[in-house]
Amino acid sequence: MPPQASSSPSSATRSERPVELRRFTLASFAGLLAVLALSLGFTSAAAAKPKGLKPPSAVKVSRLTATTARVAWKDRSAERFFEVVAKPGARPAKSKRNTRSSEIAGLQPATKYKFKVRACTSKRKCSKFSKARRATTNAIPSTAPPFGFNDQLVIGDPGNGLLRSSGADFIRVPVAWSQMQPIAPPLGLPLLPPLPLQLNWGPMDAIAGELDRLGLKPLWVVSSAPCWAQNKGSNCPDELGTAPKAAFYDDYANFVLRIAQRYPGSIGIQVWNEPNIPKFWEPLPDSAEYRSLLRKTAKLVSDFGAKVPIVYGAPSPVTAADAKKDPTKIATTTFLKETLQGGVQGLDAVAVHPYSFNQPGDQTENSIRLFDQAAAVLKSVVPALPVWVTEIGFTTAGDFKVSPAQQAASLAALYEALVARGVKLISVHRFFDDASPPFKFEGGMGVVRSDRRTVKPAYCSLAVVRGNSPAPCD
């Protein structure tokens, strides 16, 4: 018969139970720690580096600037993202899934770094880091041309303090002739001083005062013909790019002269903006007409002895292929030749806008290429005139968007390339992201978010590459 159950355990059972209890207690405690570790995002070395998850190979560092670098690598696996680190001191950068390069921002000039990359899965498991690739960031350029931003200024806005701390020298300010001089001058007497009620200086005076408070200068860009200069009476749409009729070019020139006389400390006055496309020269761009407007304006200001530089209205970056596709536009290089051939008396500088949004390939390299093409034409037709770049930029919104780190790297790289090419003034479009953009890409062009408080990496990369260290970048 089976043995009877004993009311007291045997000596063997008594001796084993504490061991089993200790094993159970330790195992449970270890399991609890493992659960807690997983819930907090920690993994053991074995979990963090699972078998078969190999680090990326062939790591290369390229496009070094004083503050940024591009890191690329090879990896055959799918559905992985990558983490890039730069030692010492830079924040790690995470790439998008399945990409094989990443931009690192926030680096220090003339500093040696070790760049390493590791592969990670969606389950927070990562490989070992790749072999370190050493590289040294560029030194700050020894020359620093005047630098600024293209934007609408809000008088008294607290965010304007970021403009001052950015190290900018000027703001490129659009001026609507239509709003400043809504009443025509006396018939046949365009060069007489306008009557007080004929010029509305209030908005420009307010902007000039705000810029003076911030320690900045204005670069005025004057466009938008009033109705009377369009031969449309008093009832016409107030369009930014509406061109005047030829009979009123003297009036435009006189208005620019008055600006130069009223604001002698301005960094320059630009004669129109991107007049080679219909958006800014309505109804259709015309090289001969713009040439005539430019010549009259530059000569008049020069004849009256005003010292403010008169600057060519930079054409929009239209390639020959773009112009062939849309004949209403004039290719940049063609427009430069047709409007500047033979020179322009009284013109102090020429300007270009080497954007590359809609060009296939790398945006930074394309912008440099577009600038070089324009510069080659300018060297052949007006070799003695300095070249300004009054708009460049990369957006973090819309169809052409890049990451904030890429925007920072691209602007820093383009700035250094332009300085190396002898550009005498550089303006970035824009400072603040547009809170109500007419086009999506305008919502990401700034180096400060649309809240006018939060800086993007590009704010710091541009400040540091020019030898500044504003508080938001510490």
List the SSEs and their pairings:
Elements: H1 11-39, H2 45-48, E1 57-62, E2 69-74, E3 81-87, E4 93-94, E5 101-104, E6 112-120, E7 133-136, E8 147-150, H3 160-165, E9 170-176, H4 177-180, H5 202-214, E10 217-223, H6 249-262, E11 268-271, H7 287-303, E12 310-312, H8 320-325, H9 332-340, E13 350-352, H10 363-381, E14 387-392, H11 404-420, E15 425-429, H12 457-465
Parallel strand pairs: 8-9, 8-15, 9-10, 10-11, 11-12, 13-14, 14-15
Antiparallel strand pairs: 1-2, 2-5, 3-4, 3-6, 6-7
Helix pairs in contact: 6-7, 7-9, 9-10, 10-11, 11-12
Q: Which percent range fits the helix content?
A: 25-40%
Largest sheet: 8 strands, parallel
**Strand adjacency order, main sheet:** 12-11-10-9-8-15-14-13
Distance N terminus to C terminus?
A: 85 Å
How large, in whole angstroms, is the Cα Rg? 31 Å
Number of domains: 2
